[in-house]
Every structure is written in structure tokens, then in C-alpha cells.
Amino acid sequence: MTDRVDRARRIAAEVDQLDDAQLRALVDNARTVGVGIGGTTKVGTINGEPVFIKYLPVPRSEENDPYSTVDRLSLPFVSHYGIGSLGHGVGRELAAHRMTSEWVQTGKADFFPLLFGSRILDLHCDIDLSEFDGEGPRRQWGPYWHQLTKNLQELKSATAGVVLLLEYVPETLGAQLRRRIGDGAGEPVVADAVHQIVEATEWMNAEGFHHFDVHPGNTLVHEGRLLFTDFGLSLHHEFELTVDEKASLPVHAGFDRDSGLMHLFHWVLFELGFTSEPERMALLRAASQSNAPELEPVRTALGESADLISHYAEVAVDMTEMFSVLMEDVSAASYSYGQAH
Hints:
Elements: H1 2-16, H2 20-29, E1 31-36, E2 39-46, E3 49-57, H3 90-105, E4 115-121, H4 135-141, H5 145-157, E5 161-167, H6 173-182, H7 186-206, E6 209-210, E7 219-222, E8 225-228, E9 235-236, H8 243-248, H9 255-271, H10 277-287, H11 296-302, H12 305-328, H13 337-340
Antiparallel strand pairs: 1-2, 2-3, 3-5, 4-5, 6-9, 7-8
Helix pairs in contact: 6-7, 7-9, 9-12, 10-12
């Protein structure tokens, strides 16, 4: 932990010395690793040290105060569930990174990546919004489609962005699961991931922090420790919350744990060869009953980790069914987490 924090302080001091032109050059020359709904991600170097760069567009509605944690989307609370949802403002994402990084630096937690610095740059940010093409998203968002598309247009036309410089951790939990399960050594990785997800999400909830997007693709692995990142949907009780958010947060105490385990189990079962969702759901429904014979192929591959899947299988089934409904109709409020649990 001390080595991580010392290194972060050293790199942060070097970031502070960069003027805007130097920082722009760093971003321009960095290797692009992804372009998605949240902006562009890259890997660059500062004095030979690798850094992870996330560049987020600042839409027109946020230009006057990009550091504000006010919600400007006016979408229903389920838009925090990661169901083809936009982030809820660069100010909130930056605030979450600053807060979680401080928790690591002060020794309160060790399961977040460290933030080295941030700055607003007058530089276009590439963004991929193709998942909103076609009639599916329009049908899914129904009455909220107009305000969603207004924000999409602002993101596309943004001429400035917020650059985040973060600790570089090359491996995700998803990549580790694929590698270790492929090598026949998935049992300890799966068991450890379950325990760490439960531990970390309970701690986050106690701090009034809700991630809302815990899955193996944006969970990093550093020396055996899971680091939770990608805070575009996150909320903290000290943010400037809407009335709906204030009312909804108390009934979402278990959301990160439940959704995190759901994503983990689907990811693991996919790597074990259960490549269709109906296959995985049939197995999980059966696994919720003790000693289900349908779980034997999983037990053969994962040993006692299969018991953890069985223990939380009902949770994974309930969450998957809720997500499936919301992917069809996000206005189906009766299927939101708070009313279903």
C-alpha cells in the first residue's frame, strides 16, 4: 500500500508541473486502448512511468460548472443501473475518483485505483455512441428518449473534456478469469473474487458510496487485490442529489453486491462454455437448490467455488430477470431494485 501511495504522490507532483500544451501532447501521443460511451481511454507515460488516461467530453450543459455533482440528465433512477445508460456528468465521475483515491491514500480502503491528477483541456474527445443506434434503444427508453438524445448530441459536439490521469493496472478481473479458467486454475480466483466483491461493496455502502457498475470488465486486479473503477454511474450521499436519488439510495444498499455477483457468475459460466444466457439462467435456477446435479460440470471445473455460486444463485437469477425487463422498457419502474427487494 505504501509503495502505491508513494508512487502516486511522485507522479502527481510531475503531473502538476505539466502545462496544458504538455498535457495535450501526452494525451495525443498516448496509446488508445478503448473508445466507448464514456469517452476515450489511453495508456501513456510520464518520466517512464505508465499512466492510465481517461478523457471525458464536457457537454454544453456542463460547461459553466464541469466540477458540479448536480445531475443534468433528468432520467429515472434506473439509469444508474448500466443498462445502456450515459454517465451522470463529468463532475460526479471526477468527484468519485478524488474521493476513492483519498480513501486509499489515507489507508481507509485499498480497493480503488489512485488518481494522479485531472484537468480540463480544449481538445475533442472521441466517443462511441453506436449502442444507441436503431429502434431498440428508442423503445427501451420510451418517454425519456428525447432528453437522452439531447445529451447524446451535446456529447458528440463537445469541444473540451476532462482528462483523468490514473494508476495503470494492466489486468482486469475479466481477463484474469479467462486466463485462469482456461488454465484449469479458476477455483481460487472465483472464490476470492466473490469474497472481495462482498467485502468491498459492503464497505462502500457503509460509506454512502454506490458504484452501480461492478463487473469484471471494469474491475482491475493488482497483486491479488480487486480495484473497483469506472465511476460514470456512481453516487455518494454528499453529491448534489435529485429528490429521486435521495429517496432511492436507501433501498439500494445491496445493489452493488447483488449486481456484482450476477455479472461475475455470468462471466464465469460463459468462460466455462455456457455461452447463451438461457443456458446460464437454467443452471443458476437449478443451482439455487442445494446439491443440484446440474452444477456438477461447474463443480468439476471450480471445486468448492461452485458452492459460492449455489449460495448466491437466487440473487443472480433475480437480478438478471430485472435487468432483462429494463433492457426492454426502462420505464418499467415496478422492476427496479428497490421495489423488487
